[in-house]
Write a sequence for this structure.
């Protein structure tokens, strides 16, 4: 199981990748696809396709894609259209919040989770509290 | 159901990286493993459940396991947590 982190910002995607790998360990492949081809804020369907194809070249691998904002969805959709049906079947796009979703998904992947288990772990991030035990200043 | 108790001594409590390591270690065993912090209980194999426990400095936590590999699981998890906790001897009354 691998993760692709899609962000409008290259540095956000790469920084999150570093954090996720430190938390979940090196056993999970995490790729960052952030920013436009010319280094501006935005997302890049071609870069996402390239990242997905590089991962999917390993026939056993599934991919969970996480995104920072909904406007990245268009690029991800365009990227998915470039894939074959059999490649697309091994990719799941998560609606989870990017940071929590990536951490939860990577840890689930690190213990041998399947694509559907890893996607479910990421989906749990939607209801995850930033202040477990209650916020002190709420 | 064998269990171990310990007091958290890390200033950050059980933060993301040790929590992830704990989940990874727990997932290697077939036993059902839970971690308790006060009234709350979490599946030790679920990071989101573990993070929702809000384990902080000085929290007294219990790890309990049930299954054929429960004893070896607890020994392994105690070792995993050792940098962050002080064990509470089994005969101590809470």
């Amino acid at each position: 199981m691998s993760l692709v982190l899609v962000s409008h910002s290259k540095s956000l995607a790469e920084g999150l990748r570093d954090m996720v790998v430190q938390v979940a360990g090196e056993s999970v492949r995490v790729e960052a696809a952030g920013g436009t081809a010319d280094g501006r804020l935005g997302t890049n369907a071609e870069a996402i396709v390239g990242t997905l194809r590089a991962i999917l070249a390993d026939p056993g691998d599934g991919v969970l894609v996480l995104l920072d904002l909904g406007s990245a969805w268009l690029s991800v959709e365009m990227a998915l259209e470039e894939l074959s049906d059999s490649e697309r079947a091994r990719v799941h796009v998560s609606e989870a919040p990017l940071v929590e979703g990536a951490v939860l998904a990577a840890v689930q992947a690190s213990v041998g989770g399947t694509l559907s288990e890893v996607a479910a772990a990421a989906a749990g991030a939607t209801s995850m509290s930033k202040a477990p035990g209650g916020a002190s200043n709420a | 159901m064998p269990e171990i108790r310990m007091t958290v001594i890390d200033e950050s409590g059980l933060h993301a990286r040790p929590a992830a390591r704990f989940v990874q270690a727990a997932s290697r065993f077939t036993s059902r493993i839970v971690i308790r912090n006060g009234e709350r209980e979490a599946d030790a194999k679920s990071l989101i459940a573990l993070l929702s426990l809000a384990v902080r400095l000085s929290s007294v936590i219990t790890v309990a396991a049930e299954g054929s590999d429960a004893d070896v699981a607890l020994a392994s998890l105690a070792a995993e947590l050792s940098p962050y906790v002080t064990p509470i001897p089994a005969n101590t009354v809470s």
About this structure: The first strand of chain A starts at residue 2 and ends at 7. DSSP finds six helices and four strands in chain A. The two ends of chain A are 38 Å apart (CA to CA). Chain A has a mean pLDDT of 94.
